[in-house]
């Protein structure tokens, strides 16, 4: 602006001197407005407000701020008066936008409809990715899903049109990949109705997974409450190389912090090692931070993010972020509540599991550990993709491994599936040949959707109860998570390690040291994969799968049939009678781990996410009863007979009897599905008593 002022005076002098006339606009010193997304050209990034709020808070606290604090406090509803104490006070925040996946969007939109408001107060989107079951391949599975879920898709599309919500049709891709490609940006505060919303932290945003009720608060223009998070710093030094990948960073961190070590905290990555990780690699790390209970995870704005923004058509956002970069990185001398240091140059490839994502092993050790523990070492299926690892770089590194096997006449010994993260990724890897290489090695390309990662998998190669091993590049591996079989031992690792292990067919293979035998009988070793982080050409957007909301949706009709088995308008819960809760019955005392998958299973139950009464028939059916060591078997205190948990709860409700649940540590870890909280209340529950709760629950 100083330069522009000098130019202004030069021009003024020229005018006064009678030299050539120039028109000088008074807005030269104003920054250009930049849209949050090209899908919303009239919704602008407001870094000025972020800067103003940060300065107010910094003056009040009189200390350097972490990046997490800058973005969170920069979105305070009242930065001048808000009480701020990490881990203690509750903050009232104004997020920039909301994103919902189709399974949780049903309940969120039903709640928004009950608010009576005409339109959402902030930019919001719905993403159809959860209801597509993996069965025979991408196109067939997508057609089948559109047919089976037509009622739900129609409800979400019309509700989006009526209330001003953008709608990404089935086949668009996984919500978190779509957000990274189109909506996340440095400094954004985004809340999403999915636990892996933190994926957006790979682009320097504070992106938090919540339940539908929280999303409705934001969409209704009400300040959103969050307990002031602590900040755990992860300092990265060195540089990734060889078989080590960004996935190994979070697998290592999960092993250190465990599934509850991040509860109530934001994980903030910093240090010189950050710049060796691609933007999509940073997203992978942030995505799986959900598995350690973290509120979210975030990386500081850097050149890798700028490169990704440019490649995804958002160079204008990168230019604006450059201007405000001081607010998009941590202050020098800022203090973390805990610091973990990882030397990327020394980090080895990891594989975590089974049955929990924090049981970390170096890949070099897993074969021996599996044999010692009695875990099956033969790999039945390898699965790559998911919201955690489905980027162009991930697919490229996997294809680089597959190409070596093909050159020696080998294909995968295990079944092998590939899930592209978005229509843009699918179209681009098809154009650039990666998809064909992965098919040639024996892979089946699935729909652009969540699929087996969330239990949407019509698995045919085993019977329920059959002990077996699968390896995935997914994020979560709780009991029965992927295929509803409690005997499936699921391990999570990077896509390239999944590919290598699928070619070998066994957990005992270490690609860093072990040899394979080619079709010609000669032994060979796989070289560490190398691939471009972004395509040399522009991304191919593929099919157009976005539905813009109309400017005026007031005339749009949203239909919910009273006889529908998939959708049900909400009725208010009964109010507290003002009396103490006494003489309650214990519905179940849960033994050990009790995740949202135990409380409200996914898989085939996803189709009832918009119908509270029907989905309540899965209440706690996966939880183990401490009385008899069985799942879905509890004693009815009135009849003394054992029966299913939901049936017993309904019996108590019918009899007007209040009941409680007793849980253990970190109750409710995992997904953001608020059904796990709504179902007990719907069936007459009054209190859940545990040693501790997961933050998201």
TrEMBL record:
Residues annotated as domain Aconitase/3-isopropylmalate dehydratase large subunit alpha/beta/alpha: 69-505
Pathway: Carbohydrate metabolism; tricarboxylic acid cycle; isocitrate from oxaloacetate: step 2/2
GO biological process, one term: tricarboxylic acid cycle
Major localization class: mitochondrion
Signal sequence, renumbered to the chain: 1-16
Residues covered by region (Disordered): 533-560
Catalysed reaction equations from the record: citrate = D-threo-isocitrate
Entry function: Catalyzes the isomerization of citrate to isocitrate via cis-aconitate.
Protein name from the UniProt record: Aconitate hydratase, mitochondrial
Organism expressing this protein natively: Ceuthmochares aereus
